Amino acid sequence: MFYQYLDGENWRHIYIVGDLHGCRRMLDEQLISQRFDPQQDLLISVGDLIDRGPDSRGCLALLDQPWFRCVRGNHEEMALAALKGADRAEHQLWQLNGGDWFYQLRGSQCIEARHALMRCRELPLVLHLVSDGKIMVIAHADYPASHYAWGQEVNPRDLVWSRERINQLQRGIGEVISGADDFWFGHTPLERPVHAFNQHYIDTGAVFGNTLTLVQVQ
C-alpha cells in the first residue's frame, strides 16, 4: 500500500503528531489537553511509533484504534527487515537503533509485539488528506519530487529515509512542492518545528527529552 486517501469530512478535528518512539504517555497527555474525542476526531502519525522510548508496545497498540492513521517510518522498516529473515546484520541494525526492547520480550508479549509489527507492512508510505478543499500530504521523511500527484511513482526509500530536503532547508535553500498545499514530515529530530515553503517538519525529539509536537490541521 503506497498511497492512502483520507477525506477530512469524516472527522470533526484532525491532528498530526511527530515521531512517537515509544512515548505513549506524552501523547496521551497531549490528547487529553486538546480534549481529543475518539468518537469524532482523527490522529495522524508521521511514523516511527517504536524504538528508543519506554513504551513501543503501547504505541503499536494505536494501530488497533479506529481514530488513528499512520505512515510507515524508517524504524518500522528496520523492524520489518529484521523480522523477515535471519540476516544477523538486519537484527543488529535494528538493535543499535533502539530495537532492543523487542529482544527483551518473552512469551505472549513477544508474539503479540511481532504480530503488531507485521501489521506495519500494511501501513501506507503516503497519506493524502483532503480538508476544506486543501490537499495535505503526510510522509515520514520526504516527498522526493518537485511536484506531487496522487499515485505518482517516487523512490520509496527516500519517502522513509531521505534528509536531503531538510538539510537544504536548514541552509536556507528550498522550494515549494507543487501539486498539494502542505506536506508534513517527521524523521529528523529538531529543537522546534521547521515550517518552510509548504513543508512542515514536526519531529521535535520527544524521546530525547524535548516536547512532542501535536498540530491541529482541521
TrEMBL record:
It holds the Pfam family Metallophos. InterPro entries: Ap4A_hydrolase, Calcineurin-like_PHP, Metallo-depent_PP-like, Ser/Thr-sp_prot-phosphatase. Signal peptide: none annotated. GO terms for molecular function: bis(5'-nucleosyl)-tetraphosphatase (symmetrical) activity; phosphatase activity. One of its GO terms (cellular component) is cytoplasm. Residues 71-76 form the Serine/threonine specific protein phosphatases domain. GO terms for biological process: RNA decapping. This is Serine/threonine-protein phosphatase. It comes from Izhakiella australiensis.
